[in-house]
Amino acid sequence: MIRRVAPAALSIERQVEIGTAAQRQTVDDIVQAVRECGDDAVRQWTAALDGVELAEYRVAEEEIARALQATDAALLRALQKAAERIRRFHERQRRTSWIEPEADGTVLGQLVRPLETVGVYVPGGRAAYPSSVLMSVIPARVAGVQRIVMVTPPHKDGSVHAAILAAAHVAGVSEIYKVGGAQAVAALAFGTATIPRVDKIVGPGNIYVTLAKRAVFGTVAIDMIAGPSEIVVFADETADPVAAAADMLSQAEHDPLASAVLVTTSAALADAVEAELSRQCRELARADIAAAALRDYGAICVAANEAEAIAVVNRLAPEHLELLVRDPWAVLGRVHHAGAIFLGHNSPEPVGDYWAGPNHILPTNGTARFSSPLGVDDFLKHSSVIAYSATALARDAAQIVTLAESEGLGAHAAAVRVRVKGCEAGAHKDRAAGMHVNRTEEMHGTVRKMYT
Q: Using an 8 Å Cβ cutoff, are 149 and 180 in contact?
């Protein structure tokens, strides 16, 4: 059911994000059609691929109101409470603009501003994921994004899952469209008469969505190229094999391509977890999916010692990492690569998926080596602020000219020289000494206004 793999041979890298040649060609055709024909292409591809023909793609306020009424009261309360926790966590990530004048009149700073319009893709395939709506939208709202456009595939009857609409309402989505797949991504990237063009597209999707995000990157920004879910459980002899197996299955049930790996220093625990995986998997509603994931992308690895186990973990750079060990805090400092880290026996991965507050949209397929969870920074952009006085320019001119001429850029050098000559001729003079410094609070006030 699940492989035993030696530490040196263990890998969870998959090539599923690049798709097949046929899939890539289909996505290229869809993206090009939407770019050229807009709504007509969106309708044609939605009818062809999803079997849905709609006269109106935008979700009406009345439909959202009906969804809220149809959503179980306990679920709605849970969504609202989870949203509060997610918002509170992400508010700690906020950045502010800054500006600092120097005595010679130089002023340097950085303006931090939110993106204006963001597109959020919400899957509508094997299951509905209202939690992903919260995780995609709330950081954008915290960042200050004013217009958030959500796209999601409709059901065959043209409806959208009530829980998805309820979560969108709770999170603060501006507008929702019943469009999915590569045609939805292309519509967000290029804009149509119906669907607005956005600055960035975030949110997980199937291989066609992933390939479409690759195709439009550069026209718009994207969050990441996300692959199937994955978890690595690092456990020692203190771990409960029942819990460890349950945690592995919590990711395996997502997708046949999901990966669930146990890295342990205990051969006895490895045997017990393997037995538990077999027993628990049979009892799952999604047993076929979980079994396929364990068979094809699952593994159990017994390391000789803790150091070898941690080295394996860092090489895998997993999306989710659980530390089911005697002293997880002692191990934490040696973990260099992981999307989200769950410490101790009472911190199962679903706590992070739904409730704790940190984002559950995470780097996969080893990309935690160089990328991070979705957060407020993903919805901000920075502008540098540079203001020189005549005194400062005269002081630095020679060095700037030297650097420009070393690169063969004479016009760069000339742009500095003409100003220095003008200053020497008295055409430009600095204001009274200290003027810029004395205006510090005024400048900070201007930056605060621009930011808010």
A: no
| Contact yes or no for 430/390 (Cβ under 8 A) | yes
Instruction: Check if the beta carbon of residue 349 is closer than 8 Å to that of residue 231.
Output: yes
Rounded alpha-carbon distances, angstroms, from residue 368 to 126, 371, 396: 26, 5, 41
Each residue's pLDDT tens digit, 9-57 = 888 766 656 778 898 999 999 999 999 999 999 999 999 988 888 888 9
DSSP 8-state symbol, 38: T
Mean pLDDT of the chain: 91
Q: Token pair for residue 11?
A: 């890998």
Task: State the Cα–Cα distance between residues 211 and 23, nearest whole angstrom.
Answer: 8
pLDDT tens-digit map of 251-291: 999 989 999 999 999 999 999 999 999 999 999 999 999 99
Nearest residue to 137 via CA among 165, 116, 168, 178: 168
Sign of CA dihedral 29, 31, 37, 42: positive
Pairing state of beta strands 175-177 and 200-202? unpaired
What are the E-state strand segments in 115-245?
117-121, 147-151, 175-177, 200-202, 221-222, 230-235
DSSP strands (E only) in 242-330: 259-264, 299-302, 320-324
Question: Could you tell me how many residues make up the chain?
Answer: 452
- Kindly state the helix (H) or strand (E) to which residue 340 belongs, with its residue range: strand 340-343
What is the pTM (predicted TM-score) of this model?
0.89
Q: How many CA atoms lie within 13 A of 421 on its CB side?
A: 6
Residues classed as catalytic: 319-320
Angle, vertex CA 379, rays to CA 371 and CA 127, nearest 5: 75
In this prediction, residues 206-230 reach a mean pLDDT of 92
Widest distance between CA atoms in the chain:
88
CA distance 336 to 330: 13
